[in-house]
């Protein structure tokens, strides 16, 4: 395949932080490259605010330009599971792994068929109001995150949802998660689990009004929003394919059982990797225990020991020497030993392409060329660098702030993300 730089002056001007592009670095706006997917939030691609989601057009671009019929697609850091949703549209088998078990709930919800009618949902929404079944999360901090006034209502709603049959309850779990987060002390507008001035005022306002009526109205809206999103996704004509989901899996310590053709993934961000902590409120209501969630958190890259490996990248060692603070250097070392070790091992079972989507995250004010470090290391294992696509980030919902809390300085988040294409 031949590559050429996009001849679009306006687009080039937008990438004001990208300079000296080589012939293997190509500017692109992925969201404008796949006309059959109308937007990044179309269908079930955005029914839940999962941190650092893939936009579907990135996966679609890879499948349309590199995949061939009969290939199997693999995402070892699957997160929301967007890779599987897109693979269905183009008729590819897929396998998804993630440490966070919420991927199973999201996947089962996003791939729902319209097995229920509008009237069925209306009747179930009336039944939930009368439910006497109760479910209380196994969470020692439950009362810290929820006003006592809300807990009986929430426990009955969740007791009802957990009692529903498999083909029905997934119409309610994500809507309940979204509604439950709103009726907590947590600030639902961001991914971190913390109390803010906004969330305190939110709860005060709820308690001053008819909050029970508001809860059921919001739940109803969320249920029908999901139903409409399912209908949208079906318009994309997803195919019946073979798939495998592994949740709670430690990607750093797990090997592929069988060969795959294309690995496409976005590994955890360099300094924003607390995905379990971000979703633990939801995990408790889904029924996971405190011990299980704590054990998952210990497996996230910042909090664990990783296997020692030789890193075959001059840029890795060059940038490592620039980091003077010991805790940041440790974070840097663990991150690259973790992801490069995983890619080196998993790559042994990848037959055609590895497609790795990363951003040039910063440590303090220094951008780290993660894409170049990945390329240099994996070339040692026989992978050939075909091209790096550079995409502009147009919106961000993860951990956004005008001031960086670590430095007290004006925040400067990454403005581009890079899709590295490596061929065996």
- How many beta strands in the DSSP annotation? 10
Query: What's the helix count?
Result: 16
Unreliable segments (pLDDT under 50, ≥5 consecutive)? Answer: 1-20, 396-411
Radius of gyration, CA atoms, in whole angstroms: 22 Å
Q: What's the end-to-end separation, in Å?
A: 14 Å
Helix content: 40-55%
Within CATH, the superfamily of the largest domain carries the name Vaccinia Virus protein VP39
Count of all domains: 2
Envelope shape: globular
> Within the CATH hierarchy, at the fold level, what is the topology of the largest domain?
Rossmann fold
What does the model show?
The chain has an 8-stranded mixed β-sheet with strand order 1-9-10-6-5-2-3-4, sandwiched between helices. A two-stranded antiparallel sheet has the order 7-8. It is 42% helix and 13% strand. It is an alpha/beta fold. It folds into 2 domains: 9-111 and 241-277 and 309-423, Vaccinia Virus protein VP39 (Rossmann fold); 118-234, no CATH class. It starts with 8 loop residues before the first helix and ends with a strand. A hairpin with a 2-residue loop joins strand 7 (362-363) and strand 8 (366-367).
């Amino acid at each position: 395949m031949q590559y050429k730089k996009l001849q679009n002056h306006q687009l080039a001007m937008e990438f004001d932080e990208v300079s000296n592009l080589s012939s293997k670095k190509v500017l692109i706006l992925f969201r404008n490259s796949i006309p059959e997917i109308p937007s990044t939030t179309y269908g079930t691609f955005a029914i839940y605010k999962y941190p650092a989601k893939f936009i579907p057009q990135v996966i679609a671009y890879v499948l349309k330009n590199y995949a061939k019929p009969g290939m199997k697609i693999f995402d070892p850091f699957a997160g929301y599971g967007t890779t599987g949703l897109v693979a269905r549209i183009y008729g590819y088998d897929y396998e998804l792994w993630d440490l966070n078990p919420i991927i199973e709930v999201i996947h089962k919800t996003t791939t729902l068929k319209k097995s229920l009618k509008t009237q069925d949902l209306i009747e179930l929404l009336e039944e939930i109001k009368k439910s006497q079944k109760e479910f209380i999360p196994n969470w020692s901090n439950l009362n810290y995150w929820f006003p006592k006034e809300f807990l009986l209502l929430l426990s009955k709603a969740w007791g009802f949802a957990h009692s529903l049959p498999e083909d029905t309850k997934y119409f309610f779990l994500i809507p309940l998660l979204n509604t439950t987060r709103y009726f907590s002390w947590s600030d639902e507008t961001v991914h971190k689990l913390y109390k803010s001035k906004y969330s305190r005022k939110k709860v005060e306002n709820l308690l001053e009004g008819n909050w029970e009526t508001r809860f059921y109205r919001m739940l109803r809206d969320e249920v029908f929003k999901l139903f409409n999103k399912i209908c949208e996704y079906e318009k994309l004509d997803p195919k019946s394919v073979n798939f495998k989901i592994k949740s709670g899996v430690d990607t750093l310590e797990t090997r592929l059982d069988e060969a795959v053709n294309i690995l496409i993934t976005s590994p955890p961000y360099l300094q924003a990797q607390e995905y379990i902590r971000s979703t633990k409120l939801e995990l408790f209501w889904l029924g996971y225990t405190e011990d299980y969630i704590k054990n998952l958190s210990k497996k996230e890259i910042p909090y664990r020991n990783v296997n020692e490996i030789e890193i075959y990248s001059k840029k890795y060692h060059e940038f490592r020497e620039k980091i003077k603070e010991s805790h940041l250097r440790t974070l840097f070392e663990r991150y690259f030993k973790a992801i490069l070790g995983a890619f080196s091992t998993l790559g042994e079972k990848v037959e055609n392409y590895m497609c790795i989507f990363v951003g040039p995250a910063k440590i303090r004010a220094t951008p780290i060329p993660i894409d170049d470090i990945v390329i240099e290391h994996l070339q040692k294992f026989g992978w050939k660098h075909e091209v790096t696509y550079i995409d502009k980030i147009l919106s961000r919902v993860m951990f956004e702030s005008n001031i960086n809390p670590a430095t007290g300085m004006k925040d400067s988040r990454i403005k581009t993300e890079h899709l590295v294409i490596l061929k065996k």
